[in-house]
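Hey, resending since the last one bounced:
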Amino acid sequence: MEGSVDCVVVGNVPKQQNGQSDESDLQSPISTNYEDSETESGEGALPDYVVELIEKEIGVDLKSLKKVSALLEKLTAENKLLEEQVLTVSSSVPLRVSAALSAAEESRVSLEGLLQRERVLSNTLIQHLQGAQPWADSLGRTLEQLDNTEKHMKYLQCLSRIEELSDSIQQCLITNSIWEAVVAVGSMASLDVGLKQSGCSHLQAFLRETLCFWHKIIKDRLAGDFEELLIQLHWPFISPPTQSLSPPANAQELHSQLELLVAQLLSLQTSDDLISEKPTSVSRVGLPPTTPLSLPVQIMLLPLSKRFRYHFTGNRQTNSLNKPEWFLTQVLMWMGNSSNFMEEKIQPILDRNGANVNAKVELCRGLLTLAQEKLALDAPRLLYDDALFCHLVDEILQFERELRTTHSYPSTLPGVLHVLLEEVVLQKWLTVERKMAIEKVDAMLSAEGAWSSQYKDISDMDELKAPDCAETFMTLLLVITDRYRALPCPRAQLRFLALQRELVDDFRIRLTQVMKEESRNPLGARYCAILNAANYISTVLGDWGDNVFFLQLQQSAVALGEEELLGPLGVTESGRLASLEGSLFEGLLGLLERLRGDMLGRLLEAVMRDVQKKAQPYCRDRWLSLPSQCDQATMSLSSLACPLMLCLRDHLLQLQQMLCLPLFQTGWQDLAERLDLFLYQNVILYNHFNEGGAAQLQFDMTRNLFPLFGHYCKRPENFFKHVKEACVILCLNVGSALLLRDVLRQQPSPTSALNELGVYRLAPCDVLILLNLRASWPGK
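The C-alpha cells again:
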C-alpha cells in the first residue's frame, strides 16, 4: 500500500523533459490499452490502475491539481488503518496457534499412555486365556457329555411316555373306557406334533406306528358304533324325510349316544389328520387347498359314497356320459334331504364341543368331492363331441347355480366350476362358444325377418327399433356373459370377454357388408334397419361399459396386464382404464360410431338430393317482382314452395317411422342445419328481393318450413339461424335498413347493433351483402 501511495505521488509530480511545459505533459493522451500498458511498464511507466486513479480523481484539468494533497491524506489514512489491522492479527494469531499446539501435544501424550495400557492389558488377557484354555476344553467336554446325557434322558422319557400312553390306551380299551382311550390318543398325537422338528426319525417313526395302531382300533370301534346309530336314525336320507307323528321310544337314548359318539370322533380329529398326512387336502381336479372334513361327517358320507360309486361308475346304465344331470341331480337331492338332519341334530353337538364347523356345509363339501371327481373323469372324454360337451357345460353351470342359491353354499368355498378351468377344457369351451355363435349369426342374418323388429307394432317397446338379428345377437352375447360370469378365475373371464369383443367386431363387419349392398337405396327399410342395428349394439355396449361386472373385469385386465385384450397401452391409457374413466368397449364403440355416422350421413345426403331437386323452381322464383304484403288480402304459401314442403314432410315422416328415436333426433337436426345452409345460399344469396318478395320468403319460412320441424322441438327456428336472421334483415323497413347500413360502414364493431335486431350468427359483411340484395331503396 505504501508503494502504491509513493507511485501516486510520483505520478502526480510531472517532470519537464526537452523543454516541454507541464501543461503539454498533462494534456497528452494517456493510453489505457493493455498492449500499451505492457510497453510502458517495460519502460518504467506507471501501472494502469494508477493511471486510472489519476484520471478519475484529477483528470487533465490543471485546476484539479489541488486535489492531490487531499488524495494523499486519504490514502495515507487508509494505509495506516490497514497496518494497524495487520499488526493486530499478527499479534493474536501466534497465541492461538501456540494454544492449539499445546493442546495437541497433551492429546498425543495421553494417547500414547492409553496405547501403552492397552498393550499391557492385551498381553495379560492373552496369557490368561492361554492358561484357562485347558479348563475351558475340559468344561466343554463335560457340558457336551451332559447335553448328550440330557438328550438320552429325554429320548428315554419320550419312549417311556409312549409306552405309558400305549399301556393306558390298552387298559382303557380292556375296561371299555373309550373316553380315556380317546384322550390318551389325543396326547399321543400332541407328542407326535411336538417331535416334528426334533430330527429323531426313528423315534418319530415308532411313535407314528404306535399312534396309527391305536387310532385305527379306536376309530374302527367308534365308526362301527356311529354307523349302527346312524342306521337307527334312518341315515342316509335317500328320499325326502317324512315327519313321523310320534318320536321313537328310545329317542332320548339315541340322542345321547349320538352326542357322545360325535364328541369322541371330534377328539380323534388331530390324530386322524396326522395319520392321513394331509392337514390341507389338495384336490385332484385343480381345486385350491381346503381343510379336511371333520371325522363324523367323513363317516356319515360313507354310505352315500358307496351309493354314488355303485350307480355312477362302471358299466351301470346310470353311468352315462350323455346324462351328467343324473349324478349332479342326485348330489343336490342328497344335500336337500340331509340338510334338516345336519342342522337340527349334528350342528348343536358340534357347537357344544367347540368345533368351528358348519355341519350342512361339511356334508355338501363331501358330496361335492364326489361330483368333482366324476366330472374330472368325464370332461376329457367329451372333448371330441361338441353336443355332449355343451350339454355337460350347461349342466355344470346349472348345478353351480342351484348349489349357491338353493343350498346357500358359501361363495368362499369352491364348487364344481374349477373343472371347467382346466386348460384343455377351457379352450374347448371357448372354441365351441365361438363356433356356435358364428353359426347362430349366420342363421339369424339369413332368416326372413332378420331386419324387421319384433316389437314394431308395440310403440312403447320399440323405441330403439332394433331389428331381430341385432337383438338376437346381443341376447346371444348376454347368454355367454351369464355362462362365464360365475367363473372364479378373472383371467378365464377375460378370455371370454375377448371372444365377445371378437364376435361384436365380426358382426360389425357383416353389417358393413350388408350396408354396402343396400347403399344404392339409402332410404330403404333394410338400410335404416342396419343403421338401427348399429345404434342398438352401440347403446348396449355403452351400458355394459358402466356395468359393475364389466368394470371389475376392466380392473382385472389392467392388473393382470392382458395385452391381448387391452392392446399396447401407454401410461395414460392404462391410467384411464384403471381409474374407470375408459371402457373395455371403447375401440368397438368408436368403430360402431363411425359406421353409424357414415350411414346417417349417406341417408341425409339422399334426402337432401331429393329436397334440392324439388326446391329448384323455388330457388328461381320472381322474388324481385312479387306484390307487397299490403296488396294481398291474406298471405299464403308460395306455389313453387309446395313441392319442397311436401317432399320435406314426407321424408321427415318416413325417417321418424324407420329410424329409432335417438337416430331420428340426430337426423332431423342435421337435416335442418343442411337445409338452412342450402336455402341461405341458393335462395337468399342467389336472388334480389323487393318488399313483397322478402315478406313472402319470411312467410314461407316462419309459417310453413319451421312448423314442419315444430313437431320435434319447441323452437325449430333455432336450427335455421341463417335463414331466420336473413329474413330479419330483408324485412327491415327502409329507415332501419339505411341506419343499419351506415352503422355497418362506419363502426368497426357493430355487433351490439346486430344483436339488438336478433342477429347473432351472421357476420357484419354478410349483413351488408343481404342489405345489397334489397330492391326497395330510395331512388331505385
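The chain has 28 helices and no strands.

Sorry for the duplicate.
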